[in-house]
Structures are given as structure tokens and as C-alpha cells.
Specification:
Largest sheet: 7 strands, mixed
Strand content: over 45%
Helix content: under 10%
Structural class: mainly beta
Number of strands: 11
Oligomer: single chain
Order of helices and strands: EEEEEEEEEHEE
Distance between the termini: 40 Å
Shape: globular
Length: about 120
């Protein structure tokens, strides 16, 4: 019933930009959503998250992407976005969308629902 589908990944040169999208079905607007990534040979890493109660306030980002990435959400379209600017080769990874009733659970990597992932490759 619950489905998260990512899109927007691709190949981009260092310094470029890319916007990822995650469209959710089977979830209410009250769910928190976020992004994780996993590079080759690396552990899954938190990227960013947001929740309805944070829509006009605080959002959270990993230190490695703060000031470069921006998370946003269109509740009407049940879609969360990750705008990635000033991309670096170290940003290369499979990016996953996650959702849960609690933003704390999302940030901790314990979300109940995950997308299939979309590949982002940044060339030097």
C-alpha cells in the first residue's frame, strides 16, 4: 500500500546541480520524510529530513551537505524534493527516500518506508 518512488538522479559534473524527487503514495501528509545516501562500499548516511510541523521552521541536514542541499516538500503532490547544488564527487551515491510518522525515526535511519533509490554520480 505504501510506496515511495525516487527520480531525478543522473550524471553531473562537479559544481553542478541536480534535483531529486520522491513521490509517496499510501501516506498521509503528517508523515515525516527524508533522504539518505549510500556510496559504494560505504554505510547508509543521513542527508536531510523535514516534517509538516517543520514546514515553516526547522529542517535538518547532515553537516556534509548543509548550505549546499535543500529539502522541500509539496504536500499537495505528496512529493519531497532534494535540491543539490555545488555537487562534489564525494556526493556520488544511491540516494534513498524515507518516510515515517516520526521525524526522529527518519533521521536515525529507522524509517518504516523506503524507496528503491536513484543513482547520483558526480564526475570531477
Amino acid at each position: 500500500q505504501v510506496q515511495l518512488v525516487e527520480s531525478g538522479g543522473g550524471l553531473v559534473q562537479a559544481g553542478g546541480s541536480l534535483r531529486l524527487s520522491c513521490t509517496a503514495s499510501g501516506l498521509t501528509f503528517s508523515y515525516a520524510m527524508g533522504w539518505f545516501r549510500q556510496g559504494a562500499g560505504k554505510e547508509r548516511e543521513f542527508v536531510a529530513a523535514t516534517a509538516m510541523l517543520w514546514s515553516s521552521g526547522r529542517k535538518t541536514y547532515a553537516d556534509s551537505v548543509k548550505d549546499r542541499f535543500t529539502i522541500s516538500r509539496d504536500y499537495g503532490k505528496n512529493t519531497v524534493y532534494l535540491q543539490m547544488n555545488s555537487l562534489k564527487p564525494e556526493d556520488t551515491a544511491v540516494y534513498y527516500c524515507a518516510a515515517d510518522v516520526s521525524i526522529s525515526t527518519v533521521v536515525e535511519g529507522k524509517a518504516d518506508y523506503w524507496g528503491q533509490g536513484t543513482q547520483v554520480t558526480v564526475s570531477s
